[in-house]
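Hi V.,

Quick status before I head out on leave. The structure for the redesign project is tokenized and pasted below; the design run finished overnight.
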């Protein structure tokens, strides 16, 4: 850049009139001010990039050497701290109800849930009934409204809400506790081992790899209660069925609850 801006914009006096030479001279002056600034910026930017190159270069070389052409494996991630809340859940008795109209049998389950997390939460639980034959039933499906109303009336608890009424915010404190009613069709009378899964009591979520496909999937911190009814459940009538001990679940990796029956599992 030894050539001066004056030299770059010299004109031929013979071929340029004084009127046209003035704009050229002004343009030359402007360029003489702008170009040095641009050059200084370019030099500074090059020096900065050179100073950062070693760190970026090492990372690039490491990625190219070990991870190029391969998808990073999906691993179990820890729960997100903001979602690590957990409500206090108290299961009530599980009983059998026989519809006097058509003789259809239903299992019904009551519970109480309290929010002691320090802030209001959304209560929108999912209750699943899993039988020893591999059948999964979601609460409320194939249950007539008439049956739900009849069971609620029979229980006589004015605070009891069915699975639709109970949806919504649960405020903090014992005074804002919710009491719920859940009902499933009973199915065959010879089904005597089953589990109840309750999702929505905790906000914990984790991402793991699907064991079959390897694709990432989400699992939620879920409550499980196991039940055993020896023989035909029909003669029991409304006699309550209590959950069995969770020792085997704990051996298989479940986390025992501190104050109640049932265990916590990822599901």
């Amino acid at each position: 850049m030894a050539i001066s801006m004056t030299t770059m914009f010299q004109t031929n006096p013979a071929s340029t009139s004084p009127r046209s030479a003035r704009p050229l001279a002004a343009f030359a002056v402007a360029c003489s001010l702008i170009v040095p600034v641009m050059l200084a910026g370019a030099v500074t930017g090059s020096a900065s990039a050179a100073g950062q190159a070693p760190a970026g270069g090492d990372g690039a070389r490491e990625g190219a050497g070990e991870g190029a052409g391969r998808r990073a494996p999906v691993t179990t991630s820890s729960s997100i701290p903001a979602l690590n809340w957990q409500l206090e859940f108290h299961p009530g008795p599980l009983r059998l109800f026989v519809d006097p109209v058509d003789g259809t049998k239903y299992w019904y389950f009551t519970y109480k849930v309290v929010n002691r997390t320090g802030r209001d939460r959304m209560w929108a639980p999912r209750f699943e009934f899993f039988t020893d034959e591999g059948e999964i039933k979601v609460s409320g499906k194939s249950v007539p409204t008439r049956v739900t109303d009849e069971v609620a009336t029979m229980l006589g608890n004015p605070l009891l809400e069915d699975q639709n009424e109970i949806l919504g915010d649960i405020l903090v404190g014992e005074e804002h506790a919710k009491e719920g009613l859940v009902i499933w069709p009973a199915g065959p009378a010879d089904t005597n081992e089953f589990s109840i899964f309750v999702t929505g009591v905790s906000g914990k979520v984790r991402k793991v790899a699907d064991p079959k496909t390897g694709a990432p999937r989400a699992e939620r911190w879920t409550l499980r209660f196991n039940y055993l009814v020896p023989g035909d459940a029909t003669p029991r009538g409304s006699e309550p069925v209590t959950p069995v001990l969770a020792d085997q679940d704990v051996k298989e990796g479940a986390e025992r609850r501190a104050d109640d029956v049932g265990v916590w599992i990822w599901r």
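Above is the designed sequence. The first helix runs from residue 5 to 8.

G. will cover questions while I'm gone.

Best,
W.
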